[in-house]
Amino acid sequence: MDADLAIKRARLDAVLRDCGSVIVGYSGGVDSVLLARAALEVLGADRVLAVTGKSASLPSWMESTARDVAETFGIPWLEIDTDELSDRRYAANPSNRCYYCKTELWGRLTALAAERGFRTVVDGSNADDVGDHRPGAAAAAERRVRSPFLEARLGKEDIRSLSRELGLPTWNQPAAPCLASRIPYGIEVTSDRLRQVERAELSLRALGFREFRVRHHERVARLEIHPAEIPRLLERRPEVVEGVRRGGFERVLLDLEGYRRGSLNASLPPSQLVRLGGDA
Amino acid sequence: VSARRGRSRERDDLAGPEVRVEALGPDGEIAGVRVPLPALERLVGTAEAANLAGRLRELGFRHVAVDLDPAP
User: Fold this and answer.
1) Closest by CA position to A197, among listed A58, A85, A95, A24
2) Burial of A128 (0-12, 13-18, 19+ CB in 10 A)
3) φ/ψ bin of A99: left (φ > 0), alpha (ψ from -120 to 50), beta (otherwise)
4) Which residue of A has its CA nearest to B68?
5) What angle do CA B21, B71, B24 make, to 5 degrees?
6) What burial letters (b/e) apply to A40-51, b meaning 16+ CB within 10 Å?
7) pLDDT, tens only, B6-56
């Protein structure tokens, strides 16, 4: 481990020690997996509980990753059902939809922490998230959820490097926001639409694609895919079309600008952006 | 900007009568480009595709995408 990364790891460990005992919001993504693993190392199994909020917006492969990693590395793990879809404010899919989702999640996790005697609830927000549209951060702040990576000034590359050092299978896993992020703002989030997206994306994963999104536009699926994977997409075009159609779409289109992280938010006016770090 | 205007202008700009641009999605927010398979394979992932996307976005489409079911 290089000196810079070792210093960052030491800062992270200090933040975790300061947390005392933690419930980790644990989605199975690269950030929360490292956070749970580091917390286990620093605090011990009695003082860590990784909790996955299961709902229709969590991709099933992430739920499997969360479970598998917890089993492999001995991370105490619990899955709870969350029900953000029954909140009309969430289902209406405003640009601050994540606030309502995280209100549900952090509300459940802080209640669980109080019930089981954990001192702190933590999340995997990191230094590279600063400046992004993150309305969910307000829900975390309201419930005093701490963000150890942010406090220790670790960014995504640091998280991937530390994950690799620790042998975590998620070290090179692509970013994977919830399935609701595939539905344009203002179009209602329903379990049917989420299932369509998930089925279509699973068919692409089964074909070996890694960095992509299936954007839901009613009967149209608009695929955003990493430019490096486009040649293979053209080779396997008939299977791609068939798989996405089986997911429940009539038309399958490939976005000419490719996969762009945060593209859903690109259409938002500045007044609707809620940036992590404070500035609106 | 009307989708119809986008269709007619881009059809003229592109490669011929086999090219079609449709306004797709609930609000017509996608410019759906449909071309024959050889043109599809030639277009995707190139600077030409990026240029086309830029031009159609200037016409008011939020997204520009090519139909993976090629035109006959």
Assistant:
1) A58
2) middle
3) alpha
4) A253
5) 35
6) bebbeeebbbbb
7) 444 444 445 455 788 999 999 999 999 999 999 998 888 888 888 889 999
Contact B27, A219 (CB under 8 A): no
Contacts of A260 by beta carbon, 8 Å cutoff, 6+ apart: A224, A266
Tokens representing A167 are 């042998």
For residue A153, give both structure tokens.
């000034």
* CA separation for the pair A215, A153 (Å, rounded): 32
Closest CB from A187, A217, A241 relative to B24:
A217
pLDDT tens, residue by residue, A126-175: 999 887 778 888 899 999 999 999 999 999 999 999 999 999 999 999 88
Q: Which of A187, A231, A237 sits opposite B68 (nearest CB)?
A: A237
Interface test with A, best of B10, B68, B69 (most A CBs within 10 A): B68
ipTM: 0.81
Q: Say if CB A213 and CB A204 are below 8 A apart.
A: no
Instruction: Tell the residue number behind the tokens 């299932």, with chain if given.
Output: A195
